[in-house]
Amino acid sequence: MSLDLSEIRQQITQIDRDLLKLLSERHRLAFDVVRSKEISKKPLRDIEREKQLLLELVNYAQAENYQLDPQYITQIFQRIIEDSVLTQQTYLQNKLNQQREESISIAFLGIRGSYSHLVSRQFVKQAQAPIVELSCNSFDDVFKKVESGEADYGILPLENTTSGSINEVYDLLQHTDLTLVGELAYKIKHCVLGNGKVNLSEIDTIYTHPQPAQQCSQFIQSLNKVHLKYCESSSHAMQMVARLNKPNVVALGNEDGGKLYGLNVIKTDIANQENNITRFIVLSKYPVKVSPQVQTKTLLLMTTTQQAGALVDALVIFKNHDIQMVKLESRPIYGKPWEEMFYIELDANIHSENTKKALADLKDVTSYIKVLGCYPSEIIEPVKL
User: Fold this and answer.
1) CATH number of the domain bearing residue 318
2) Where is the Chorismate mutase domain (predicted)?
3) Of 26, 73, 209, 356, which is the most buried if we count CB atoms within 10 A?
4) Separation between Cα atoms, residue 93 and residue 44, nearest integer Å
């Protein structure tokens, strides 16, 4: 005799609750792991161990005939491993940077519901102190609020997998004494948001920030005779559409932000590519200490001489010291036509002896060099089998 749907759903609910209990127990064990590594001084991540774990789980499922797809198993446990690594990292960083603040103020682009606002909440989710949120109308305003001390931290988007580097932020980094203290990745899921139900063919005006417009350009081009109205942020765009309350006027934004303004999702997943992720940086007036056991990034700003091969000479130094360069970005130098400065992002801790030697060698082949920040990364790259 087959069970009815309600009974099946009750069984699923109980299994889900059992899974939550097991996940909680595994999460707690991450603290035992990090305390052990704290004593042994081992790195938080053991890539070979992670690969071995995933392979053993896939093989075990096959041996037990669980009928689970290997990719499904791998994706689930990659996320579990990520949680464990970030939990351990937060533990070490909090011990190293013990701060007892009455409140934490954080500046971000836009108002409630912007992507930067959502990321700022993600950044401070572990904070024990009350959070003060400071809305800004421009990237420059974010910098100024942190530089003046009005904000403890500033959240800024640096690059997107669809639209690429955000040049305005890179250019502002040239002229600040602020330091990078963290980075986060946020999956961007752009939606068309409006008042009530409306057919796409009826839309004649879209309010948006330039970045979402660029990331959703193919969708926008598929519409007929649509006027773009640019706003300071995606949250400002959603706020404007809610105020206008016209069925043929919509905003590009996110579903969570749309709910704050009473907007309906008309169409989702409209970015040019499915894997649309923005990397955000965190700025502060004061640097953070980074545990040598934690995955660490360093961002450098440098200029080279105008001699042939000068840039190559600089980059070879990182290779000679076995330091991985993960990004190279060039930007023009204001007031010096056809000259450029370079942002170099490294998987390295500036306090390690190896990195210190590399930076010393770099001074011999550059005309200017500045460390913009040495910081822990919350972007955990999953291991691949």
Assistant:
1) 3.30.70.260
2) 1-92
3) 209
4) 12
As annotated, the binding site includes 9, 26, 37, 46, 50, 84, 88
pTM: 0.84
In a 3-state reduction of DSSP, which class is residue 165?
A: strand
* 16 DSSP assignment: H
Which of 188, 254, 198 is closest to 226 using CA atoms?
198
Contact 354, 321 (CB under 8 A): yes
Domain assignment present for 216? yes
Q: Which residues are annotated as a binding site for substrate?
A: 9, 26, 37, 46, 50, 84, 88
- Give me 303's structure tokens: 């200029």
Compute the CA torsion angle 140, 146, 147, 149 (nearest 10 deg). Answer: 140
- Is position 253 within any domain? yes
Q: What is the pLDDT of residues 284-305, one digit of tens each?
A: 999 999 999 998 999 999 988 7
Q: Residue 21's domain spans which residues?
A: 5-97
Dihedral angle of Cα 236, 239, 244, 249, to the nearest 10 degrees: 70
Residues 166, 200, single domain; the answer is no
